[in-house]
Amino acid sequence: MPTLNVDGVEVTVDPGTTVLQACEEAGAEIPRFCYHERLSIAGNCRMCLVEMEKAPKLIASCAMPAADGMVIHTNSEIVKQGREGAMEFLLINHPLDCPICDQGGECDLQDQSMAYGSGSSRYDELKRAVAEKNMGPLIKTTMTRCIHCTRCVRFATEVAGVDDLGALNRGENMEIATYLEQALDSELSGNIIDLCPVGALTSKPYAFTARPWELSKTESIDVLDAVGANIRIDSRGQEVMRILPRLHEDVNEEWLSDRSRFSYDGLKTQRLDTPYIRKDGNLVAVGWTEAFDAIAEKLQDMDGAKVGAIAGDLACAESQKALKDLMGLLGSVNLDCRQDGAALTTEARSNYLFNSGIAGIEEADALLIIGSNPRHEAALINARIRKRWKMGNFPIALIGEQVDLGYDHDYLGAGPATLKDVAEGNNSFADVLKKAERPMIIVGQGALTRTDGSAVMDLARKISADFGLVTEDWNGFNILHTAAGRVAGLDLGLVPGESGLDTASMLSGSLDVLFLLGADEIDTSNLGNSFVVYQGSHGDVGAAAADVILPGAAYTEKDAIWVNTEGRPQLGRRAIFPPGEAKEDWTILRALSERLGNTLPYNSLQELRTKMVEDAPHFADIDVIANTPWGESSAGGSVDETAFINPITDYYLTNVISRSSKIMAECSGTFSQVKVEGTGTNG
After folding, report:
1. pLDDT digits over 301-320, tens only?
2. Residue 149: which region, alpha, beta or left (left: phi > 0; alpha: psi -120 to 50)?
3. Are β-strands 396-399 and 410-413 bridged in parallel, bridged antiparallel, or unpaired?
4. Structural domain spans, the chain
């Protein structure tokens, strides 16, 4: 292991470490623009220059491997002059338009020019001008500011798996652009905004709306898919202005999917901000007391068997616990959090988790994807799969719809018949799984939300048990969820009790009263005379079918626990307050229970969470994945020949928030037009 002397400090680093990394381990600060620890090394900005003794000139520390015996100086006079020269060159063509630039106040070029620049320039020639580029409805370009660090190009190619972005021409004529002058077609495109060290690439929806010092910053959790990406919500007053990713190495690293980043305008449209009651076929705004009275009157002396509840995809753990307890007080066992009808049981927690963990993908050495398109269902997990694929020796196979995943894979077939062949060892990929040391499978909701979903689950578990996917130190059986609230609901037991009705049965019109807790991805056409109580944040499918509407809070408006697809409980924080008369969901259910004369046994969020921990102890360990032993399953039956169909047909319009977003609607229209025939993507 090489040992270096950095500014008089000795530091020993791993082989392959760069001088820049060694300097930072020794406590020295090295400026940079092109270097990024998650991207390949470009070495083209020269801001990271340092002095190495016995070297004829300054070295680019980002591109120089650390070697034993190196003596490095990071703050000598010659280094200072070199950095001033590099900065002077970078600013030759930069327009210096900080007052009108959205990057102002959080710009790397601005900060480093102050810290390492000379304060003057010897160049007074006319600056170059570059035409703006079309990168779609999300990315605003001002390419005159571009310093050609190529971070965006390397991210698109290496992380996102999209080869649309690159550098054209040479020298002063070099420009960063999409090759075909069309929108950058990637579910992760917004990350190039964060990577850009200048104001060349900024957020088009956020443009000219706020300055960073005006914003309140709240650390929270994304809920628009089941990954549980860590985010920062930037708000001003009662409005969310933007959403940015936070660093979490085991979940989202430092990336965020476009739907999660840009759907925030949907938080203020189509909102439910007061209770409603349906009178003479029309919804009429009323007060909370009148709404509760209408529900209480309907439930009076009603048999619990005639009451049911469905929890939706965006329901937090606390609201689902309160809903379950309320149904218990009403004597009902008709309860379900699987609004898509997925064949998931609660017999063993490992039956419905992404057991390998998201970070565990990097340890796997073979992968079989069943009935899923992770590029649309969990773009960040797909990026992690691509990261592992780029390391090499990682065979990947797909059973289901033939789609472009962004990496090479073997397409085995369309449906359960192919899966059965693998399970019986009649497919060559079965041998690949058997020979692998840490094989894994990913079962998507497209394989489980079918009439034969239980049989498909049984085949997937058979493969796991027979092919060595589950050992003492490895569990390669993974369920990929698409709903942020699903795992918490299963953890808390929101499934039908003995003789209870599931989602499909409750939606058939067989109940007198049906509670919908943010359940909008459902078919309400057969509800008949069922009295529907909808509690949620947006006027979508559920609200349209409701007889009483109780306005709830969106995920940015409440403190809540969310459990991601790998079973990791995480804390979401309130950034703003709900609009109008809307309330946090568990408080609505608590107040309703009091009106019904059977009050729920908690008066505060802490008391509610204590009850949750009694039901599922792992809720007490925030950001920790509990050890989950491999369990038994009663799933079974026979599979049919119908091909798997992926659950997401339009990546940008998957939930009530994104469907209420004008930005997402524009993305849906834009990217459905630029799909290239033959890529297999689904919009």
Report:
1. 899 999 999 999 999 999 99
2. alpha
3. parallel
4. 3-90, 118-204, 215-269+649-683, 355-480+628-648
